[in-house]
Write a structure and sequence with these properties.
With 308 residues, the chain is α/β, with parallel strands linked by helices. 37% of the residues lie in helices and 14% in strands. Helix 5 packs across helix 10. Heterooligomer of catalytic and regulatory chains.
């Protein structure tokens, strides 16, 4: 199974067998990341990093992954300090960086930017998030986290928070459908998962339940995947507080959960997870963040043809 020169734009490009191959490759490479060691798998290769939006985990884990594999990183840096500030188009910038790098990681605020970039690039484009669209490498690390810390087959998962605008959730839903997961959607009506995604899940014979309360689902699930409720979506601060408080995850709430329940979050978090949860056996979000390194090591090695 060859991934060489493959663009990583959307999870819909991947079959279950392809996803499993990436997860297996990440598991093989994880000891390098865990030991903070270095290999020479990508020695002599250069990764172009272009971020048009703020990022901590995605950017740093991609750069760490490339360096752990012995490669080099070439960063666009601040957009304001580049020719983009002079009006250069994304297509032209991609054409330029294409001449310097063996692969390009792109985060952009406009949905569809990664797909556009792939049409002008001769090297693989890895979508690190495009507006409210897709974030496939986050989905790969989420699946890897679930496999390492829980189980994918027969999974019962609840997705809580901003399901309307959260690109991590949109990509994850499709991927989970390939594993036959039972999905509970927890959000206020204003932030419910788009109807077309719900219909797509149901067309794949996925059991989907909707509720506005975590308490309704907490006793029966294996994974609780929380996302940040974006304050800027609410013109009324009081309404925001009401919604945010209704989705708060506390140690008291988790007393009702299965002992093996894992709480995940793509981070950054605001107030949706009580800090006291960090010290419980359920907290999995910092492990999840770490797993971004081996999964991105796997993707980089595969698309650059260093591993099959």
């Amino acid at each position: 199974m060859s991934f060489k020169d493959l663009h990583i734009i959307s999870m819909k490009s991947f079959s279950r067998d392809m996803i499993d191959h990436v997860l297996n490759t990440a598991e093989m490479l994880e000891p390098i990341a865990r030991d903070k060691a270095k290999s020479d798998i990508l020695k002599g290769k250069v990764l172009g990093v272009m971020f048009f939006e703020p990022s901590t985990r995605t950017r740093m884990s991609f750069e760490t992954a490339m360096m752990r594999l012995g490669g080099d990183v070439l960063s666009l840096g601040s957009v304001d300090a580049s020719s983009i500030a002079k009006g250069e188009t994304l297509a032209d910038t991609i054409r330029v960086v294409d001449g310097y790098a063996n692969a390009i990681v792109l985060r952009h605020n406009k949905e569809g930017a990664a797909q556009l970039a792939s049409e002008f690039s001769s090297v693989p484009i890895l979508n690190a998030g495009d507006g409210a669209g897709h974030h496939p490498t986050q989905t790969f690390l989420d699946l890897y986290t679930i496999r390492r810390e829980s189980h994918l087959d027969g999974l019962k998962i609840a997705l809580a928070g901003d399901l309307k605008y959260g690109r991590t959730v949109h990509s994850l839903c499709y991927a989970l459908s390939l594993y036959g997961a039972e999905i509970t959607l927890i959000s206020p009506k204003e932030l419910r998962l788009p109807a077309e995604i719900i219909e797509d899940l149901k067309s794949r014979n996925i059991k989907v339940t909707e509720t506005e309360s975590i308490e309704d689902a907490i006793e029966d699930i294996d994974v609780l995947y929380a996302t940040r409720v974006q304050k800027e979506r609410f013109p009324d601060p009081a309404e925001y507080r009401k919604v945010a408080n209704s989705l708060l995850i506390t140690p008291e709430l988790l007393e009702k959960a299965k002992p093996e329940l894992k709480v995940m979050h793509p981070l950054p978090r605001t107030n949706e997870i009580d800090p006291r949860v960090d010290n419980t056996k359920h907290a999995c979000y910092f492990k999840q963040s770490f797993y971004g390194v081996p999964i991105r090591m796997a993707l980089l090695a595969l698309v650059m043809g260093a591993l099959e």
